[in-house]
Amino acid sequence: AAPKREYGEPDPVAPVKDEITMDDFDKIDLRVCQIVKAAEIRKSANCLKLTLDDGTGKERVIVSSIKHDYTTDELVGKKIIVLANLKSARFSGVTSEGMLLAATNNACGCQVIFVDDIVPVGTAIR
What we know:
With 126 residues, this protein is mostly beta strands. The chain is 7% helix and 37% strand.
């Protein structure tokens, strides 16, 4: 497990962002993915490369800056929520095809949102 970290006071709570419509929300593809591989990226002090099963039959790779909060061993096999239709971007030489959902706050660091094992891979989050 990652070393025990000391946390500080909670961040101030931001105001609620501008309203969106259901049409706006329907553009977002949030889905349950399972981490099948997790690896450190040599060129990065903060990022891990996660290889995911997103239910489509094709592996998906994402890069996430969670290296200080999780070990690769504790991530493999876990189910997470991924923004699957985020435009691809390169980080530390690796193309990332999405973004995982996590709560980040000074009071808790970065906490990935994990999903119960009973939820099938590829399930849409609505």
